[in-house]
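Figure 6 in text form: structure in, sequence out.
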């Protein structure tokens, strides 16, 4: 089946304008990243996973993850936890913050999360998992979706057992990253399971794992019948990959475009996180933007040593002077929409 990646699909009543979903990634999926993903062709973007306990305790840093702006939408916010009542409470906060979709993480393999009964642990506890989905669906009106791994152990098929239960309990779409929790990111995502899941449920299935090129995306649609593909690591410092999936003839970005997009991203991130947090957060992005054969490795190593973000900007403009005008153009083209969150403490805005 040939699918036009730029065609829309629906999750519940929410129209998703393309078949590309930008993956939720902890420590990566800030507003600036999501906004950039939408600009480059993602039909849906997602926050990183947000602790329902953190929301319950009104932890300021956690509440900051609920900042949403109009130009990110459609947007999903992902929560994780194991207690149905606390998850339902967190879901109402996400809905009030303006998310279009509430996603739940039933796939995180990190022990800090799994040992609390959350994340991938739920894949092998179908009753508990379904109870969480029911409680959350009852608490909110926006569509509820779940992101899964294949199971805890290598070779597990748990997602195929729990997936239909989650749909029965009210889930409007499922995402499958078919690696086991034990695998973390090693080996390959086994998308034969994705094809099986598509056969088992009558809601859209989003395929996640190892989608890095247009050919990967096309083959995955053909092999699995998925409704959309999710792009994660391939989009880190590389939003152009999304555009190339929508138009495989699109040329690779020029050095001026790469540097301008990075500087714009740095400025947006600084506005969002404040200068101090942004400095540490951004270091990993220098390598992601500037390697991939675009600049010598030593350039990135030089940037991470610089003291301030304005030093980094100046060094980037020194290397690629043509990027300066492009940043000005980007700032005119993409004026940030104001955050639309209204019912949260004011202290989380403005770089908090
Ligand atoms: C740094 C990093 C952080 C991630 N954080 C999350 C997360 O918060 N929630 C989630 O559901 N998946 C998370 N993932 C998994 C991705 O969403 C995705 O399923 C996985 O990376 C496979 O897709 P890829 O091969 O396109 O990267 C994370 C992955 C990475 C690399």
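Output sequence:
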């Amino acid at each position: 089946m040939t699918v036009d990646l730029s065609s829309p699909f629906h999750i519940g009543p929410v129209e998703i304008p393309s078949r590309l979903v930008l993956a939720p990634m902890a420590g990566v999926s800030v507003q600036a990243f999501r906004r950039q993903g939408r600009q480059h062709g993602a039909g849906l973007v997602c926050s990183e996973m947000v602790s329902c306990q953190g929301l319950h305790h009104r932890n300021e840093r956690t509440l900051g993850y609920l900042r949403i702006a109009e130009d990110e939408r459609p947007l999903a916010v992902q929560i994780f936890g194991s207690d149905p009542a606390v998850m339902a409470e967190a879901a109402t906060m996400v809905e009030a913050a303006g998310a279009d979709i509430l996603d739940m993480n039933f796939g995180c393999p990190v022990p800090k999360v799994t040992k609390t009964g959350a994340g991938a642990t739920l894949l092998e506890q179908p009753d508990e998992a379904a109870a969480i989905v029911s409680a959350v669906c009852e608490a909110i009106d926006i569509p509820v979706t779940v992101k899964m791994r294949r199971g805890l152990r290598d070779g597990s098929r748990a997602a195929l057992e729990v997936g239909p239960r989650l749909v029965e309990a009210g889930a409007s779409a499922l995402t499958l990253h078919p690696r086991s929790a034990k695998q973390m990111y090693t080996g390959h995502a086994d998308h034969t399971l994705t094809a099986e899941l598509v056969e088992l449920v009558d809601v859209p299935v989003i395929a996640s794992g190892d989608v890095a090129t247009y050919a990967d995306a096309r083959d995955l649609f053909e092999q699995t019948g998925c409704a959309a593909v999710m792009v994660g690591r391939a989009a880190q410092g590389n939003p152009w990959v999304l555009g190339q999936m929508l138009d495989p003839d699109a040329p690779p970005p020029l050095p001026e475009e790469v540097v301008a997009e990075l500087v714009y991203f740095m400025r947006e991130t600084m506005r969002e996180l404040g200068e101090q947090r942004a400095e540490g957060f951004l270091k990993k992005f220098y390598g992601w933007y500037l390697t991939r054969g675009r600049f010598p490795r030593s350039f990135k190593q030089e940037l991470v040593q610089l003291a301030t973000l304005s030093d980094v900007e100046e060094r980037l403009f020194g290397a690629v002077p043509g990027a300066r005008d492009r940043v000005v153009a980007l700032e005119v083209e993409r004026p940030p929409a104001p955050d639309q969150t209204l019912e949260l403490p004011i202290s989380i805005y403005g770089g908090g």
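Caption detail: Residues 255-348 form one domain.
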